[in-house]
């Protein structure tokens, strides 16, 4: 029997899942040490300048450029200044030994590296340069009072360093999305089948950088499921369910939500993961909490999570998301629907489907580096074609 329902494409379903989703507005204050991977909720104004004071960029002698204008020039050495010292005044016609990072003595406007001198005292300066050379000026990188980083910036190692240098000790960060995973199925509740979707999807959420917790499995009872969904949505920013959405007699998720306004259930032209659904519930505080209902079959659930939920998590976090791609290492047949295959990445960055793909093998999935998305071209997809590659992180991770 042919299916009377026209299947959506993967792209159509991705757009459907993302429709109406906006960045979370919750913020929290974090110590800088806890802020890796987080997104700034507000501009950061520099408290301190970078560099904090004029300092030497080379080991050498601090001098007045005018005193060494026509080298060679011989100058008495009146002192030495190292990083951490208070700079002594430079008398006219003299030099002060200076170490990299040391404050420039008042009066000096040039640091002559040791290599341009004979060293010793008096020092003979053999080569010169215009005033300012080998001096890093206070605030030349960032001036106190100016914006060091803009709201929306993601904090990686370099940003944490900059914030430390400008005197920040804590930041206002966007809250991390909270992902709730609700698995369904009487066979899970009764222990006949281990609930492998919950740990996989919680881990995938965490690998993508969000807070994630499992709240299933819940039994095949629509009223009970609805109550659990409502309870979970109170403390979640997105709820992902697994199972119960195909055409069976006990498909609890579909039975519970099919009639709810804004929910969609239907086929997507992909394999695995043909049955899909999505919608939203409204929490008691008025928040719209997106719900993505994934198929129960473990590979279908995982592939669908990476295709649809990871971009949704980015949208909630306010971080950019774009599909990762890699060139195919071999020809792959393209059919009438998108196929998601476990793949291995070569050192050359090309991806190859694992041999012996058996449709639903969790063993093969566990042997894969990533999933590769074969487009529904209806003909051979040649080696070298860039295809979408799915993994929860770290390339596409949104928060540490
Ligand atoms: N008549 C039809 N039957 C099915 C269709 C269809 O279009 N017409 N689609 C098939 C496809 S494709 C898939 S995928 C599955 C999806 O079904 P559900 O989302 O309703 O999932 P369940 O029936 O609840 O479970 C499917 C399978 O996966 C196992 N499972 C479920 N949850 C977990 C879990 N958390 N951990 C481990 N394993 C899980 C479950 O025991 C079943 O074996 O529907 C086809 N049928
Ligand atoms: O699409 Mo289902 O995912 O074959 O198992």
TrEMBL record:
Keyword Transferase part of the UniProt annotation: yes
A Pfam family assignment: MoeA_N
Coiled coil residues, start to end: none
Keyword vocabulary terms for this entry: Magnesium, Metal-binding, Molybdenum, Molybdenum cofactor biosynthesis, Transferase
Cofactors (names): Mg(2+)
Positions of the MoaB/Mog domain: 180-315
GO BP annotations, alphabetical order: Mo-molybdopterin cofactor biosynthetic process
CDD domains, per database record: MoeA
Pathway(s): Cofactor biosynthesis; molybdopterin biosynthesis
Reactions catalysed: adenylyl-molybdopterin + molybdate = Mo-molybdopterin + AMP + H(+)
Transferase recorded as keyword: yes
GO molecular function: metal ion binding; molybdopterin molybdotransferase activity
Record-linked SUPFAM superfamilies: MoeA C-terminal domain-like, MoeA N-terminal region -like, Molybdenum cofactor biosynthesis proteins
Function: Catalyzes the insertion of molybdate into adenylated molybdopterin with the concomitant release of AMP.
PANTHER family for the chain: GEPHYRIN (PTHR10192:SF5), MOLYBDOPTERIN BIOSYNTHESIS PROTEIN (PTHR10192)
Stated name of the protein: Molybdopterin molybdenumtransferase
Organism: Nocardioides albidus
